[in-house]
Fold:
Amino acid sequence: MTNSFGKIFRMTTFGESHGPAIGVVIDGCPPGILLDIEEINQQLSFRSPGKSLYTSPRKEEDRVEILSGVFEGKTTGAPIAILIRNKDADSNQYSLLKDVYRPGHANFTYLQKYGIFDYRGGGRASARETAARVAAGCVAKKFLISLNIDCVAYIEEIGGIGLPEINRNNLQQIRKQTYSSPIFCPCENTSVRMMEKFQADDSLGGIVSCIAHVPPCLGEPVYGKLEALLAFAMLSIPASKGFEIGKGFEAARMFGSEHNDPFEIEEGKIGCRQNYAGGTLGGISTGEPLYFRVAFKPTSSIKKGQQTVTIAGENTILKLPETARHDPCVAIRAVPVVEAMTALVLADAYLMHLNVKCFA
Amino acid sequence: MTNSFGKIFRMTTFGESHGPAIGVVIDGCPPGILLDIEEINQQLSFRSPGKSLYTSPRKEEDRVEILSGVFEGKTTGAPIAILIRNKDADSNQYSLLKDVYRPGHANFTYLQKYGIFDYRGGGRASARETAARVAAGCVAKKFLISLNIDCVAYIEEIGGIGLPEINRNNLQQIRKQTYSSPIFCPCENTSVRMMEKFQADDSLGGIVSCIAHVPPCLGEPVYGKLEALLAFAMLSIPASKGFEIGKGFEAARMFGSEHNDPFEIEEGKIGCRQNYAGGTLGGISTGEPLYFRVAFKPTSSIKKGQQTVTIAGENTILKLPETARHDPCVAIRAVPVVEAMTALVLADAYLMHLNVKCFA
Amino acid sequence: MTNSFGKIFRMTTFGESHGPAIGVVIDGCPPGILLDIEEINQQLSFRSPGKSLYTSPRKEEDRVEILSGVFEGKTTGAPIAILIRNKDADSNQYSLLKDVYRPGHANFTYLQKYGIFDYRGGGRASARETAARVAAGCVAKKFLISLNIDCVAYIEEIGGIGLPEINRNNLQQIRKQTYSSPIFCPCENTSVRMMEKFQADDSLGGIVSCIAHVPPCLGEPVYGKLEALLAFAMLSIPASKGFEIGKGFEAARMFGSEHNDPFEIEEGKIGCRQNYAGGTLGGISTGEPLYFRVAFKPTSSIKKGQQTVTIAGENTILKLPETARHDPCVAIRAVPVVEAMTALVLADAYLMHLNVKCFA
Amino acid sequence: MTNSFGKIFRMTTFGESHGPAIGVVIDGCPPGILLDIEEINQQLSFRSPGKSLYTSPRKEEDRVEILSGVFEGKTTGAPIAILIRNKDADSNQYSLLKDVYRPGHANFTYLQKYGIFDYRGGGRASARETAARVAAGCVAKKFLISLNIDCVAYIEEIGGIGLPEINRNNLQQIRKQTYSSPIFCPCENTSVRMMEKFQADDSLGGIVSCIAHVPPCLGEPVYGKLEALLAFAMLSIPASKGFEIGKGFEAARMFGSEHNDPFEIEEGKIGCRQNYAGGTLGGISTGEPLYFRVAFKPTSSIKKGQQTVTIAGENTILKLPETARHDPCVAIRAVPVVEAMTALVLADAYLMHLNVKCFA
Structure:
């Protein structure tokens, strides 16, 4: 039950990084949504390692197979099962990891919890699982497009280099700039400066931002608040360490008279354009752009030697070989995952809202 | 379904700030837990407005009534219903709020979503609902004590004044210091400096920290990660804007070689005492102290005049009268709520883990 | 989590037969539904013991208090909490039951499971809990009326005396006849013959039927089939032992050529008027009347002496005193409960269907 | 969300009868359970059409692929995904069904609900989906064996021919006899008499019984009653029309003094061996054998001509060709499905009970 996400638009993911396949079953997707398998393949290529110099060179060339729920190119209302076969599972290079606790990794906690030690690529804790999320996110996005809801994620900060202020009103432009950058940062200059920070034997943390254009009324009171659902979604992504919406932690240093967004009326429409709140009030969308940020720790696997302990309980130094896959900054690959999870939250929030929308 | 929280240890809250009562039903609490109604009353007094100069002077003197699930002082396994009657509902002072969108408040979004405008104290969006969480949290804590699990929340920062580094190993001491401070800050000097920042007509944001001592193995992979459950819990609290675990957003500016917690062996026990991770790896507790921070925006209701719009669509200035209740910093009252929500997450995580623990 | 029922229109009940109160929290009820507290009180009076010679003479005069979720007589979308105080809890008469396993009762299994022996009126296993279901069912019915959905339950058989064939098209008439009968049997003659079967010191089983008029398309495939949801609802009622829809067990003795309902077209509308299926195909409503039957065992508490065992493990004879409450046939009191549970299933099924209805 | 079953031990099925594959994802299976893929294949062969003269001759030779959750032959605690490719999807023979509502089938209701008409083998409403249940049921059974819990289903009645009284204490013997019979009836003589009832151009209904040996304490109060969970599970099986536990509908014709099972003490153990209740009291298992019966309607597809209507709204006669697949009695193929669903309910009930068992 912990491998499912969402209440009505609900995905269940399965598969380990070094098993035969990973995949996702999406239950609750409305019928009649057009699905294009090549769009899913393309989205997967964005998070796929091996894409650029700056992400881990595992050549997966993920291609999905849709097993159910789609008939003549359209969703039918039946569960949509999507399968992604694993390739290139070179377990050999994991042999040196067989007997050691890897700093920053989950093999320590998984072994304690399950009594099973999968020394290969991390099992369910592997970032590989996020490919299934991205595939499901594509389906969610196709549904959202039909509702005029859109979202885009991008790199906001790497190694202390931050992105200049961005105009949150033009998502198409942000998307174009983001996907032109090898590190998904929608500013060419900043991208270059960030990449200069990359280290051959060490890794960097980073911050991913996401903006969504949503209608008012999404989100539910109390334990269905939109920001709570997003926070849950984001902290479920491997390596994420923090979430903030609107002014976030900065709000904690402000006065109420500064932070409160004044309501204004413009051309008959009431809004709060300052939008320090980040697009919600009381957990429900205001109609202003929704925006939030997610902190990612540096990639745990690095080539620099690290103090650790073997399973047998001996002190040792873990040092990945020069040939090992290396992800200089895990936040980069997280960008399409943040976007996918956002789409999944919004699709579910939309369907949850029908309960009220159809009667209020 | 959005008024329930938790999977196995599950609470459902109900009630509005100005209705006859609020309350909570707790389902899934194991049998045999000793419950003392006076402990619940005491915990409620901590979040209750009117307690000190520094929180809103609504005299509620909340006292709970346990309606079910307890027999001869012990839980029976049946659902525990706890009722808290509302008193002192002086609706008069809300009359000036009847026709206006209140900046930072949920009345704008609730009216849009539900078509109903409860101009009185905020309905379900009111912080009043958190009293039910605190009552449920007390029950969770009694269960946790029997498992040797403990947690404590406190004020970390107000108005830019931060708490010095704290020793996370002695929760009893932190608790004692926290509840000696009128603003729940476990350092007398810092408390004084924070209080000097308070404004008569404006409000301040703040940061609440929480530390928990938990055994290894709590939390589930993927969509049951402990930090995701905590992030959801925290962002469901009114006025919260951000969550971070361990080094949080600071981790985004670190190198992997710095951030990765080295495993060490000490007296035969393997741990990662640096604990920048904040007590989990891969979403599962390591056995090191769990710690995280929650950002709260400044209280929305202030006495300073604010630009806003009436429901009729006219520009206006909203200015609360001098006699209005005033909360200089909503983070203070959030302290027992953060602690309660943490206890609820941990109780549920423990029960979720039985599924593995009894077989691994 | 086992004290909740429904997915979107979801009730959580609480309370024991001899505690201070029982109640229900309804989450997910759409806003804007008119609620009349006196209608709820009236429905409760139907299931209330003491109503007639033919049901157990416990004078409860249940009156509900609505604690939340209703503003100016209308639901607001917030959770609706309804409280029913317990009165007349004369525990004395239970003292002889203190040390003995009661045949047909749950005190044996509850003691084994929970290690707690509530010798008073049955705790959560008591039929008292069904008052909360009836109250919630009233709210569901008010919602259903606005959708032109209706349902009525009645006694079909007691002590081997069955009701003649009934016209399933006029629910108003069935309701009128049902509630004119002291035993909820919509045929005066049959009522009389059933009542002649009643025994002073023994009890009888019975069958409750229910008919509902629902639009097509309610129910979901696979694990959301309308008949599966109804079967679950009915078997959750104390003392129920069986459920059948349409021809039910009789269908198991028919040929396909007999049982299959032919499709016909009449005035441009396609239907299957034979309706041996009972109103669904593949778990989804056809638009024909939904009908099903629920078997109830005889009341477990009887005045005749019964062989049993004390908790100390001695053989004994249990014989209720002449003054004990006596329910000659528990199926009678189950009638409003079957109706309430049906209304709850249909309200939830309607809301579940929005997910498809709004897009197909 | 309607394609999932169970709370903790939870399966999600996917796939249509004429798509590329069907499958199931099992979440919440404890780690360390030995799984043998050939046992699953064998169980599938039991429900597989084409197995005998008496079931529909679709040659599927189902073979499963385990995609995840199993490492070195044991479950790991990760979700177990099982894939079954569809073969032999001869859509040609469905062409005559393209334009017509099929009596007893779900194509009428699916078309109304989803606006999509899958004229091929029934989509999600097809009995094909039950193969995924059987595969998941195998996993549940392996878990149950380790807990000393067992269950067996068999044909109780076909075409009015019933099975003589059976000894419910020896499940191994019942299983052996059941699986020796071409129609899963554990009595050779009765099997022969049942088969004589089969019709070349018509179909028969039937009743499936199931017996389970379970420890006391399984099942939860109120909305977690074991019989309610079983009733839901059984009515979710295609073509099922009724469920009864213990004496079931017969109980409705009994006196309390007959039906109540006396408690007895034998060799220090308290039980109620008459067991008319069918193994539960108040929804919780007593430790006596659990037994219940499920009614199945006759197979809807028959070769005899049937009155129906085309989608265009014309009256017509539907007559399947002589070469069409023909299932003389759908109850036969339902036997392994009933057994699988029972195993799934019991596995989940066991895990649900941990919440109490570990503390009471």
Observations:
- Chain B touches chain C at residues 1-4, 7-8, 10, 12-16, 19-23, 25, 27-28, 31-32, 65, 67-69, 71, 74, 76-81, 83, 113-116, 118, 123-124 (CB under 8 Å).
